[in-house]
């Protein structure tokens, strides 16, 4: 099958980029011919190393840029005769839709950021992939028919991004609490800061590490500076691979207010962390609804503090939840994601061609 993935860029900044890159590389390993159209970025060399063709399509939301993108993308779809076009963001879906309609190519869209109003436009796809059950239910409420909507839960284990990564744990102070993600309000970091402040007096040896960057970094550093626990909080900043921090951490915390299906939970579980996540969006599903990780209400620092206290008061309890993180972890492999996605593609194709490709 000849597949074209379209996304805004291939920089490390966004989870949807990681998901799309992982999927494209995994599809090559399954024997498909894969291309990526984007503005380019950090992962282009990885894509090329995995035999994936890349070309530039500018996604800037200006009429002249979009017209040029439409013309360029149409030429690629015409010349390479793709079987499937897979759009990963709203702009990609909008510019792909008329081309796919005219050329009779199925358009697949993946809803990565369901919390955005523009996610409704992902319903333009012949098939719409939701990255968790909660996202699927939300898209149904937005009017996407059940017949075109498919859920493919995110997973990262075994991805090409992880090849050759360091397994050496970072030297963290123990007991260590780790956050990995973008530094912006949706991730709920102030809740974690206040929860850590509440338990710091009882566990003065505990240390909180924040890995990631974003527009609120300085705001959050100023916030932490006013707390008594400030000396026990370290902002690591952006790193190319957070896995060595996860391997070293005692407890991984994701206090999000909204998170459709965060890849970081798959990675934290692979690293055998004891995990605490907020019970919102796709987080419960990625934590086996509380069997593979602990769940707390979102926007509730007191509840989060109580759960941190529950773990830190017993090293044996932390060890137990590290073991529980491995429950049904095989569901979080990128191979499973790739195979399920190929089945979605086949369901969208004209019947005779789909049968031919399946044989």
TrEMBL record:
**Limits of the Glycosyl transferase family domain:** 163-326
Which molecular function terms from Gene Ontology are attached?
Answer: glycosyltransferase activity
The superkingdom of the source organism is Bacteria
Query: InterPro entries attached here?
Result: Glyco_trans_1, Glyco_trans_4-like_N
- One short Pfam name that applies is Glyco_transf_4
Q: Where is the Glycosyltransferase subfamily 4-like N-terminal domain?
A: 14-155
Signal peptide stretch = none
* Coiled-coil ranges (or none): none
Entry's PANTHER family?
Answer: GLYCOSYLTRANSFERASE
This protein is called Glycosyltransferase family 4 protein
């Amino acid at each position: 099958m000849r597949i074209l993935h379209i996304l805004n860029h291939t920089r490390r900044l966004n989870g949807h980029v990681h998901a799309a890159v992982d999927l494209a590389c995994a599809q090559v390993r399954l024997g498909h011919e894969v291309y990526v159209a984007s503005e380019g970025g950090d992962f282009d060399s990885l894509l090329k190393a995995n035999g994936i063709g890349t070309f530039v399509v500018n996604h800037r939301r200006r009429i002249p840029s979009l017209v040029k993108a439409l013309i360029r993308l149409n030429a690629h779809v015409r010349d390479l005769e793709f079987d499937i076009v897979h759009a990963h963001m709203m702009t990609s879906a909008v510019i792909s839709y008329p081309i796919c309609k005219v050329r009779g190519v199925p358009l697949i869209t993946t809803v990565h950021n369901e919390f955005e109003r523009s996610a409704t436009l992902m319903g333009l796809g012949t098939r719409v992939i939701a990255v968790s059950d909660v996202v699927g239910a939300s898209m149904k409420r937005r009017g996407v028919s059940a017949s075109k909507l498919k859920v493919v839960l995110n997973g990262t284990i075994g991805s090409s991004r992880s090849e050759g990564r360091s397994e050496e744990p970072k030297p963290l102070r123990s007991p260590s609490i780790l956050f990995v993600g973008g530094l912006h309000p949706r991730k709920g970091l102030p809740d974690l800061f206040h929860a850590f402040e509440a338990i710091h007096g009882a566990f003065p040896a505990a240390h909180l590490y924040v890995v990631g960057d974003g527009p609120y970094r300085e705001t959050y550093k100023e916030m932490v500076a006013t707390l008594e626990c400030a000396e026990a909080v370290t902002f690591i900043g952006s790193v190319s691979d957070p896995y060595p921090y996860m391997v070293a951490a005692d407890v991984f915390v994701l206090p999000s207010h909204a998170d459709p299906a965060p890849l970081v939970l798959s990675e934290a579980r692979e690293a055998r962390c004891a995990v605490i996540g907020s019970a919102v969006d796709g987080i419960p599903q990625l934590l086996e609804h509380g069997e593979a990780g602990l769940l707390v209400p979102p926007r509730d620092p007191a509840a989060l503090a109580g759960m941190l206290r529950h773990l830190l008061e017993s090293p044996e309890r932390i060890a137990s939840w590290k073991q529980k993180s491995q429950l049904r972890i095989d569901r979080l492999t990128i191979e499973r994601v790739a195979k399920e996605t190929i089945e979605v593609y086949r369901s969208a194709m004209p019947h005779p061609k789909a049968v031919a490709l399946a044989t």
